[in-house]
Amino acid sequence: MSDPVVIIGTGLAGYNLAREFRKLDSETPLLLITADDGRSYSKPMLSTGFGKNKDADGLCMAEPGAMAEQLQAQVWTHTRVTGIDPGHRRLWIGEESLVYRDLVLAWGAEVLSVPIEGDAADQLFTVNDLQGYGRFRQAVEGKRKVLILGAGLIGCEFANDLSLGGYAVEMVAPCEQLMPALLPVEAAAAVQGGLEALGVRLHLGPVLNRLQYAANGLEVHLSDGQTIACDAVVSAVGLRPRIELAAAAGLAVNRGVVVDRLLRTSHAHVYALGDCAEVDGLNLLYVMPLMACARALAKTLSGAPSEVAYGAMPVTVKTPACPLVVSPPPRGREGRWTVEGSGADIRALCHDARGALLGYALTGSAVQERLALNRQLPTLLG
Ligand SMILES: Cc1cc2nc3c(=O)[nH]c(=O)nc-3n(C[C@H](O)[C@H](O)[C@H](O)COP(=O)(O)OP(=O)(O)OC[C@H]3O[C@@H](n4cnc5c(N)ncnc54)[C@H](O)[C@@H]3O)c2cc1C
């Protein structure tokens, strides 16, 4: 039998690539390897699960056995790849090695860790996969109050979702506004108003220094001297693409594993997509880009080299307390923001010097304008 195409990772990038590949090639042996349990799920659902009252089993779309059958592939679960040797088309799982025809890195990004002191520091949860969601859900079962670290997109979605799930929510982040990397201040204020109307309490400015057990749960100590009681803490302070194994193997890495528009790394027969990949300089941690990459790479792996193209990539943020759609200006394009509206309904547009639309942030009723505006947005990879 010929050497397999091996995909490391069974997140949306790995499984979608396998699905696209099988539409074009039903013969080549296909092997997916994952460090987790290999269940298929849609990661965006992890920040709407409490509002919809779904536990981890409820969010699982297919068991790995069913995926293997559907994809005519092998799926190795709970198996961590520990090294790759591109020169010999080989990867390592501990002492065992395996030869591939082509290797695809779809191993995602990991949650940034924050240095925290205190005897309950190990009670800091992260939710970046279905298993993490399951652990967190179990920990807060029957509890009342959750503290969220981080005020980025994911932190805001968790705040909205946990509130809908009946929890009292506090947020702590060392910034002056919500989603500072994404939003102009007026749009951030609109989202803040929506979350506060749900009862979310924001502490913008301080960091969490210490997490310790108290008589009835946990006690959080902030750098500004405040102490907050809560039952659990979930960290959403950001993600870092996994690059260590690639770097150790001599592949070019930057913020992510560096690939060109054919999704090729710096070494022949090794490709990357999804959260771990930096595609022609862009590391976008969203679903739309990885779907475009999966379709292009499937063609390339089937013998028809195809470059990926990114159109505009607006992101719908799941904060129903204040609907939000945002399309940040492309990297390196200077623009000027103009903001209209007030309260919950903000229309913030970013134009270049010649008046061309570069990006937008729409909140409240202004989100209705997104389709018309999307047609004017520049492509990200044309
Ligand atoms: C809570 C949340 C909500 C989100 N909501 C949205 C949204 O609304 N819209 C949107 O566009 N995007 C959203 N995103 C982002 C989007 O879900 C991700 O960009 C996408 O799911 C990443 O998929 P991936 O397959 O690249 O990585 P992952 O899903 O992280 O998969 C990585 C895989 O690699 C495996 N792996 C890692 N290291 C190894 C190893 N050494 N050996 C073997 N296997 C390994 C893991 O076990 C896993 O199977 C959200 C993200 C989160 C966390």
TrEMBL record:
Instruction: Give the main location.
Output: cytoplasm
Q: What cellular component GO annotations does this protein have?
A: cytoplasm
* Protein name in the entry: Rubredoxin-NAD+ reductase
Please give the superkingdom of this protein's source.
Answer: Bacteria
The major lineage groups are: Bacteria, Pseudomonadati, Pseudomonadota, Gammaproteobacteria, Pseudomonadales
Please list the cofactors this protein needs: FAD
Please list the GO terms describing molecular function: oxidoreductase activity
Species of origin reads Phytopseudomonas argentinensis
Tell me the keywords, alphabetical order.
Cytoplasm, FAD, Flavoprotein, NAD, Oxidoreductase
* Record's subcellular location: Cytoplasm
Give the matching Pfam families: Pyr_redox_2, Rbx_binding
Q: Which residues form the FAD/NAD(P)-binding domain?
A: 5-279
InterPro entries given for it? Answer: FAD-bd_OxRdtase, FAD/NAD-bd_sf, FAD/NAD-binding_dom, Rbx-bd
Q: Indicate the family of this protein.
A: Belongs to the FAD-dependent oxidoreductase family.
Looking at the record, the residues that make up the Rubredoxin binding domain are 307-377
